[in-house]
Write a structure and sequence with these properties.
Beta-prop_BBS7; 6-stranded antiparallel β-sheet; Bardet-Biedl_syndrome_7_prot; alpha+beta; 5-stranded antiparallel β-sheet; coiled coil; TATA-Binding Protein; BBS7_GAE_dom
């Protein structure tokens, strides 16, 4: 049976960060629970609901922005003490709002993640993990990449302290004291961790994780190894997961998994079989879900899902039925309670409108004064720029706390703008003069009213690097704009991976010179995405990458004074050689560059590209035939006389056009990659073959793999 959930908007606070809203334990079995939320204005708000209205319990004064909010208390007692992380400080409040703790950790960076278990406090800054017991420092760990979340397995079940760190490099790091116990490789960068069933399952060892690319999984973490139990991919191409909770919303005696995503989706998974959870229900809000909780909030006896969104709205999906009494005809009589609520809201709205008019007049008068300077209104932008493995494109997500008026996108490198289904904005392109101003892309997205979230997709060309800029203008007065910059790296389509196929034919680039470990690491950060900015601990490091467009791979190993880069794609090696030598020249460092080219690797790369090339050429031919075939259909009225292959083109016309529209310039990109491969192969031999490129393009139009390989060998 589908759950019947009605939406209720309770209250709006300031902009909220991930995991900053919790429900306090109920006083009785089916009694309503108080809500506590921390926002980026530094305010902790605690409220309950009476007769559909939010009634405040306490509210603190503004301060530094709150990055995390957790509940704590002695083990095996109700967890009703409120702890907030703000800057490098942890504060504790009772459920009545009295502050009983102010713990200054003296961390060099702000706290990003926090977990509390009894007297144990686990804190993480970007790369640093600290464990405190009764506010005394116990353990410390330096992670190899950014830490996104932290939790500890329940001590009462596993009888030891086992912290788990979710790190950006697609790894869960399981600790023991200050030491790394072992690492768990994940399919995507984990953004959130939660104990399965809220308590780690029967064994206390089960941890649910959500990733930034929308995957969900459960892992059993024992003292010696980790065992994956299940994993759900992101087939529907939804947003990244920001929050997870366990709660029995269906009332079947088994806790469901509640999931909040950064595209506004709330999902309910239930465990029909003991193995994998199944998606039972979903609900879409218009902005990212920062926190999610299951409980009883609005009315005694009615469970609900409470979500806190990015802009600070606390929204409930309640099981309480919406009562309506049928009147004569179409007329519906609202309950007295509802009529009173509507009346009070109208009064409140009228007062706000009067206040806005008064303030606007006041502002207009003051702005005309010669001595007063107009103040620029501040607004928050939540942005995310990530590489999608499925279609080798970058997603740029911009979320603003107020409605967006327009977004201007500008780039100094060639980029393809791809279609996004969820995007309702109207896009217009301006002509660019790329020579004097290095302007390759200039596009404006005009948003519809009340749009607070905009998603764009771009595809870059490897070897061409620079900056993509987004100018975000919200619908506020006076008009103001924020500029956000995103680096397009030389090897922008490469994504970190855990391992590579060592049996492929590899080309090697070797660098030697008077450079430090930190210097060569900064060059690798400049060239490749998903590399931590902080110089790794130790003397040597190895990273593995995969090209999301072609499937070729790269291994980079470097230390002080030397670096080794191996790839089955000679163009990757050529780009690295050019960029690294340019970066070294900037710093006046003399590099000794040598390389080992494997002729077989060129054939191998061509065989990887060819199926994609063949598919795109066939798609382009089919799309070009559609208009002519449709005209024939109109004139003849019947297309039974056509060959089956032409009839199938007509039947699939809409899907073909949609696919072709989604991938503009895909064929040109493949032609460009093969041309670069041809030029790079001979560049390493010291031969310039640019005059033979027109001949190569003729062969490409024929789409013959053997002929193409023969041309590469004979040239």
């Amino acid at each position: 049976m589908e759950p019947s959930l009605a939406r209720v908007d309770y209250l709006q606070v300031g902009v909220t960060a991930q995991k900053t809203m919790r429900l306090l334990p109920a006083s009785g079995k089916k009694a309503t629970q108080k809500v506590v939320v921390g926002d980026q204005d530094g305010v902790v708000t605690c409220f309950g609901i009476k007769k559909g209205e939010a009634v405040p319990v306490f509210k603190t004064l503004p301060g530094q922005k709150i990055s995390r909010l957790e509940l704590g208390g002695a083990l095996n007692t109700p967890q009703e003490k409120i702890f907030v992380a703000t800057g490098s400080e942890v504060r504790g409040f009772t459920k009545r709002g009295k502050q009983f703790l102010s713990f200054e950790t003296n961390l060099a960076e702000s706290i990003k993640a926090m977990y509390i278990s009894g007297a144990d406090l686990f804190l993480c800054a970007s790369y640093i993990y600290n464990h405190y017991c009764d506010c005394k420092d116990q353990h410390y760990f330096l992670s190899g990449d950014k830490i996104n979340d932290v939790l500890c397995l329940p001590v009462d079940k596993v009888n030891c302290i086992t912290p788990v760190l979710a790190c950006q490099d697609r790894i869960l790091r399981v600790l023991q004291g200050s030491d790394l116990l072992y690492e768990v490789e994940l399919p995507g960068p984990p953004t959130v961790l939660a104990l399965s069933n809220g308590n780690g399952g029967d064994s206390g060892e089960e941890v649910v994780y959500g990733t930034s690319d929308g995957r969900l999984g459960l892992i059993q973490i024992t003292g010696t190894k980790a065992t994956p139990r299940w994993e759900i991919g992101n087939e529907k191409k939804r947003g990244g997961i920001l929050c997870i909770d366990s709660f029995d919303i269906l009332g079947d005696g088994v806790k469901e998994l509640l999931v909040g995503r950064d595209d506004g989706m709330i999902e309910i998974y239930n465990f029909e079989s003991a193995d994998d959870p199944a998606l039972r229900h979903d609900y879409a809000l218009s902005e990212s879900i920062a926190s999610i909780q299951g409980g009883c909030v609005g009315k005694d006896g009615y469970d609900e899902i409470l979500a806190a969104t990015y802009s600070g709205w606390l929204t409930g999906l309640t099981t309480e039925p919406v009562h309506r009494e049928g009147g004569s005809g179409e007329e519906l009589k609202l309950s007295q309670e509802m009529q009173n609520k509507i009346s009070s809201l109208r009064n409140e709205l009228e007062q706000l409108q009067i206040k806005v008019l008064h303030e606007r007049e006041k502002y207009q008068q003051s702005s005309q004064s010669s001595t007063v300077v107009s103040s620029v209104p501040a607004f928050s932008v939540n942005d995310k720029f990530t590489l999608n493995k499925d279609d080798a494109s970058y997603s740029l997500i911009l979320e603003v706390q107020t409605a967006i008026d327009n977004v201007l996108v500008q780039s100094d490198v060639p980029l393809d703008l791809l279609d996004v289904d969820k995007n309702s904005a109207v896009v217009s392109f301006s002509s660019c003069d790329s020579e004097p101003s290095s302007n390759f892309l200039l596009a404006t997205y005009r948003c519809q009213a009340n749009t607070t979230r905009l998603e764009l997709k771009v595809r870059s060309i490897e070897g061409q690097y620079g900056t993509l800029q987004a100018y975000v203008t919200p619908r506020i007065q006076p008009k103001t704009c924020q500029v956000h910059q995103y680096q397009i790296k030389p090897l922008s389509l490469h994504q970190r991976t855990h391992s590579i196929d060592q049996d492929r034919p590899m080309n090697t680039l070797m660098l030697k010179g008077q450079f430090s470990f930190a210097e060569i690491h900064s060059w690798v950060v400049f060239c490749l995405p998903e590399v931590p900015e902080k110089t790794p601990a130790g003397e040597c490091i190895t990273f593995y990458f995969q090209n999301t467009f072609l499937g070729t791979q790269l291994e980079s190993t470097y230390r002080k004074g030397e670096g080794y880069f191996k790839s089955d794609n000679i163009s990757t090696i050529s780009i690295l050689k050019d960029v690294l030598s340019k970066e070294a020249t900037k710093r006046k460092i003399n590099l000794n560059i040598s390389y080992d080219v494997n002729e077989e690797s060129v054939r191998h790369t061509l065989k990887l590209i060819h199926p994609k090339l063949e598919y795109q050429q066939l798609l382009a031919k089919k799309v070009h035939l559609i208009d002519a075939l449709r005209e024939l259909q109109v004139h003849e009225g019947n297309v039974d006389f056509l060959l089956p292959k032409y009839r199938s083109i007509l039947e699939e016309a809409d899907q073909l056009l949609e696919e072709y529209k989604r991938q503009p310039a895909h064929l040109e990109r493949l032609y460009g990659m093969i041309t670069d491969l041809f030029i790079d192969k001979f560049k390493f031999k010291g031969t310039n073959v640019k005059t033979k490129v027109p001949l190569l393009l003729e062969i490409l139009d024929g789409c013959d793999q053997d002929g193409l390989i023969a041309f590469f060998d004979a040239a």
